[in-house]
Amino acid sequence: MTDTALPPAIDSHTLLVAAIIVHDRAAAKVLLIQRGPHAKFAPNHWDLPVGKAEKGEAITTTAIRELKEETGLIVHPAELKVAGIIHGAWGVEAPNGFLTVVFAAENWSGKPTNAEPHKHAQVTWIDSTHVPEEFVSTTRAALIKYLENGAAVIAEGW
């Protein structure tokens, strides 16, 4: 037996995605984005800050990068806690399926802004007891489960 590491698995057929729940527990609010009217998937629906991993990128790096790109907020990797896993059998940009790791962060720096107005209609805090219905179903389910103090494993389309 050898201690030689295997090469990284960077040519996966399943799209790897990160989503992040920014939770202001004291104010009972979570930060959401609203997809724009011309989005390829779920136009005008609410969602968590979310995005695809770049080839060879660690999933925590994806979460931090996407949060900053979409909202301007900065989260330190040590602040990320796993809040759920979503495994979808198909997707608009993932015909072979996708795996989303949902993180939660309660500490960040910066003030939220719609940093991608060409993609999103708005970025705003919402009351965590009133999660909108018109929401991407898988990330909504993960958010609700997290807010109920639980982690979720969500499978869709299997």
From TrEMBL:
Keywords: Hydrolase. SUPFAM superfamilies: Nudix (SSF55811). PROSITE patterns: NUDIX, NUDIX_BOX. It comes from the Bacteria. Residues 12-148 form the Nudix hydrolase domain. GO terms for molecular function: hydrolase activity. InterPro entries: Nudix_hydrolase (IPR020476), NUDIX_hydrolase-like_dom_sf (IPR015797), NUDIX_hydrolase_CS (IPR020084), NUDIX_hydrolase_dom (IPR000086). Belongs to the Nudix hydrolase family. This is NUDIX hydrolase. It comes from Catenulispora yoronensis.
